[in-house]
Design brief:
single chain; 403 residues; mainly alpha; globular; transmembrane helix; Cytochrome C and Quinol oxidase polypeptide I; transmembrane; membrane
Length: 403
């Protein structure tokens, strides 16, 4: 258990680095910083998704399903190889963007993720395979593999069609879509179901079957929403909208099941953890509503033409839904203690930055003048997120040393 706590701290360390890179990006218009903006954006996004979210999720998955099987040595080979790829990306992306070394390390990361997938499939017990939670985790890991088609396609697209081709953007959107809608969301739901199953709080097979098919139909169909910047035939708008409706329906099924067992669940979690769960459900509902709106041509055009709306939506998903849910699970499994004060500082920074990002999108949409202190306020709000993560990170080591 001790080494898994250290792995969780390492994931949090990547989150701190990603937040610092985000702060640098948001200070770019306030201070003179000798960086190439686009290069730092690449580093920020890769370390946030692959350092923080991927490492935190795979560490939790290993703990739940494989820790008791005495596989630490084999797991460590995969884990530390993954760290090599992440450090390589961190040392190359900020200085060269997509170039030889960053592409090599990104490719090696894909191989590392395949290794974890095979490792999981090889050693998972037959008993676990009967659980609803396993179906979610297994499918989530399949989405890791499916999403990697995007990065593999980029090399050929850049060689033949160039980075200005719509296929270049489609490959990136394919990867991102199946990462945050498929891998991350479904893995988090699977972990929640595992916790409930361990306490004999079951979602009925009939309800789970409807949920499972609905969310997967939704995940696949909503990819078409990522293609709307090409102004495709109306059928793709319809398919994307149907997918968004299926995802909302699947969320309704899960939330309804949680409500039916609300007393048992509230007793299972601490009051703080239960409030995190309710916050995540609310944020996820808003995320899916926003996604449904983009099936309408008018709002699809807004999302395409006003980058701030897209950035706000992505940050809502990663910093709101995914990160707060990870805070909940890391705290629940006692892998990292999440102090309440640190969380509320984080939540304040997150909500302020989201309000400011969507405000700028609204200003551009309505052709209004931007507040002259906007970029300073955005940088200060981003600083709150850095402070909160640093608080959590420092506290985790303080508790360790105290013990």
């Amino acid at each position: 258990m001790k080494y898994l706590k250290n792995h969780s701290r390492l994931a949090l360390g990547y989150f701190l680095i990603a937040a610092l890179l985000g702060l640098i990006l948001r200070s770019f218009y306030v201070l003179e910083i000798p960086i190439t903006f686009k290069f730092v954006v690449h580093a920020h996004s890769h370390i946030a998704l692959l350092g923080w979210v991927y490492i935190a999720l795979t560490t939790i998955i290993y703990k739940l399903y494989l820790e008791k099987l005495q596989l630490q040595k084999k797991y460590n080979y995969i884990f530390w190889f993954t760290q090599l790829t992440l450090v390589g990306m961190l040392c190359s992306f900020p200085f060269q963007g997509y170039a030889l070394f960053s592409i090599v390390f990104s490719t090696l990361f894909l191989i590392a993720s395949y290794s974890f997938f095979i490792f999981f499939k090889k050693h998972i017990s037959s008993e676990n395979k009967e659980q609803n939670s396993y179906y979610c985790i297994n499918t989530a890991l399949w989405y890791v593999v499916i999403s990697s088609i995007g990065p593999w396609a980029l090399g050929g697209i850049m060689t033949t069609l160039g980075a200005t081709s719509i296929w270049y953007r489609l490959a990136i959107y394919f990867y991102l879509h199946f990462q945050y809608n498929g891998w991350m969301i479904l893995a988090l739901i699977g972990i929640l179901l595992y916790i409930l199953e361990e306490q004999n709080i079951q979602v009925s097979k009939a309800v789970f079957k409807r949920f499972f098919y609905s969310i997967n139909i939704g995940i696949i169909a909503t990819f078409f929403l990522s293609t709307l910047f090409t102004k495709p035939p109306i059928i793709l708008y319809i398919l994307g909208g149907i997918g968004a409706i299926f995802q909302l329906y699947s969320l309704f099924l899960i939330i309804n099941s949680l409500k039916q067992n609300s007393e048992k669940i509230s007793a299972l979690f601490s009051s703080f953890q239960f409030s995190l769960l309710k916050t995540v459900c609310f944020f996820l509902l808003l995320k899916m509503i926003l996604q449904l709106l983009t099936a309408l041509p008018y709002f699809a055009n807004l999302a395409v033409t006003i980058l701030d709306f897209t950035i706000g939506y992505l940050h809502w998903t990663f910093l709101g839904v995914v990160t707060i849910c990870l805070f909940l699970f890391l705290d629940y499994f006692r892998m990292i203690k999440i102090p309440k004060k640190a969380y509320y500082i984080y939540l304040s920074g997150f909500l302020l930055t989201e309000a400011l990002i969507f405000y700028k999108g609204f200003i551009i949409w309505q052709s209004l003048p931007l507040l002259h202190t906007y970029f300073k306020l955005l940088a200060l709000a981003s600083l709150l997120i850095v402070i909160a993560i640093l608080y959590i990170f420092a506290t985790s080591f303080f508790i360790k040393n105290k013990k």
